[in-house]
Amino acid sequence: MSRFEIGDRVTVREATTLFHHRTQAYTRGRTGVVVEHRPEWLIPEHEAWQLEDGRVEPFYVVRFHQRDLWPDYTGLELDTLETEVAEGWLDPAGEVTQ
Amino acid sequence: MPSPSDLDALQRRVLGLSPEPAARLDSPYWISNEAYGALRHVLHDVGGQPDAPVPYVDKEEEDWELRTYVLCEVLAWRGVWNAEVRRRRENDLGATLYLGLPYYARWLSVAAKTLLDKGLISVDELAAKIDAVRARKEAGS
User: Pick from B40, B47, B84: which is nearest to A26 by CB?
Assistant: First the structure.
């Protein structure tokens, strides 16, 4: 069961991490849009310790605007970056209010 | 490839920067939470970090690199580890080794350590094999 649908706006959580994880620092607290569902998989925080009964979560491809990731980005407004994020790292971001 | 004068210019620019005085990281008695956060940063997460340009080298894998790749895959097929364990163990090498070793040398180092950890080979066995291979190479065969 996926919590988010294609087109949903999501914010990457500013969660505490200990040791291994795969959530890039530059995505923390940033908001993007779900563009693809990926298969459920063992989360990297657990897979990295080869846990037999580790937690399995849905993964999403999230698309960010480069300008939302890098404050001094000098490229084009339409430039984007896509990365895979496990569901536990994502909060719903709601609609754009501006 | 940057020219020597490019590198000189880069060095002058760096020397011109005036960093804030920093505490030496030499087993200090205490560190701030901020410093602990920075030290905990996962090494492979390099996006957005400042770096200097490096030359682009269009190079094919060498035999030892391909063999290392296959070795690591085979260890995964046999359940010794998985690719995420390998990545974690590469990070666990620490910054000096992680950034100092060639890419596949990182793989090879952590494969050896994993086999030792799991008792699948012994350190004596591994050292003896390295000596045997070195002797064979030196004999020119």
Answer: B47
Is the minimum CB–CB distance between B137 and chain A shorter than 8 Å?
Answer: no
pLDDT in tens, A34-76: 999 999 999 999 999 999 899 999 999 999 999 999 988 999 9
Residues of chain A in contact with residue B45, where contact means CB-CB under 8 angstroms, are 24-25
Architecture of domain B63-138: Orthogonal Bundle (1.10)
ipTM: 0.86
Interface touch B48/A25, C-beta < 8 Å: yes
Q: Which domains does chain A have, with CATH numbers?
A: 9-92 (2.30.30.50)
Per the structure block, which two tokens stand in for B10?
Answer: 């880069």
B-chain residue closest to A70, CA distance: B48
3-class DSSP assignment, residue B75:
helix
What residues of B are labeled active site? 103
**CA–CA separation, B91 and B85 (whole Å):** 10
Q: Which of A96, A60, A27 lies closest to B47, judged by CA?
A: A27
pTM: 0.81
